[in-house]
Amino acid sequence: MSEDNVSVSNNLVERATGNRQFLGYGCQQRGQAAAQNNADGPAAAPIVITVTREDFAKLPVKPAVAHAGPSDGWLPSGMPNVLHAESEPQVLDTTLLDTPVSVRATAQSYHWDLGDGNTIDTEKPGKPYPSEEISSTYAYEGWYDVTLTTTFTGEFSVNGGEWQPIDGTIEVESEPIAVYSKSLESRLVDGDKAPDEDEDPWKPERSSSTDGPQHPEATHRKL
Question: Helical H runs in the chain?
Fold first, then answer.
């Protein structure tokens, strides 16, 4: 903040009852603040600082950390694909009208796109395996991208003041997670030959021919 400016608290006071309503913090020139305290007449109206959804969307809010499928990147077709997200509240600092402003972003809900047409909306972050609180299955073999989009709510604090809500939410997309759904079939093996642990199961190189098909009966679920 400039040395010529001060942060002021804006309040609406009802004369009849004396009730006071907090309207937020503002920025005012030092001379105007003194005039308001000492003069009989009203001083110039202070500048009220607020943070809009558009301001919120311009800040570098980090996406939630998405987890899908086993760590080796493949799972058998029909096996539950366990989904969960990690997201702690984030505080980002900025400046408006030469006044320090802090913005706090908190995850509100999660939209999972499984890549095969199935989607899940939930307010729960989910839990790691063996939990199946949030999970889905693939019916077909092939590569799929699992994408998480997180909706964040926001609050702002002017010059260390109390937190105030930001009107509106923003959506932040995480990096897609590639998962290969493999169809496992029984087959005869040579009992005299030692199994090759690197041979199967395997993941093919990704291409248009190895991408999995869309599910003809895909659904949108809310959990």
Answer: 30-38, 53-58
Give me the domains of the chain, ranges plus CATH numbers. Answer: 1-48 (no CATH), 51-222 (2.60.40.10)
- pLDDT category, 49, cuts 50, 70, 90? confident
| Torsion angle of the four alpha carbons 24, 25, 30, 36, in this order, in degrees rounded to the nearest 10 | 20
- The angle formed by the CA atoms of residues 132, 133 and 138, to the nearest 5 degrees, is 55
Give the whole-angstrom CA distance, residue 24 versus residue 155: 12
Answering whether pTM is above 0.85, one says: no
- pLDDT at position 26 is 55
Strands, sheet with 135-136, edge to edge from the N-terminal-most edge strand: 65-68, 81-86, 135-136
CA distance 171 to 150: 6
DSSP assignment string, 93-152: EEEETTEEEEEEEEEEEEEEE-SSS-EEEES-----TT--SSEE--SS-EEEEEEEEEEE
Residue 21 has pLDDT above 80, yes or no: no
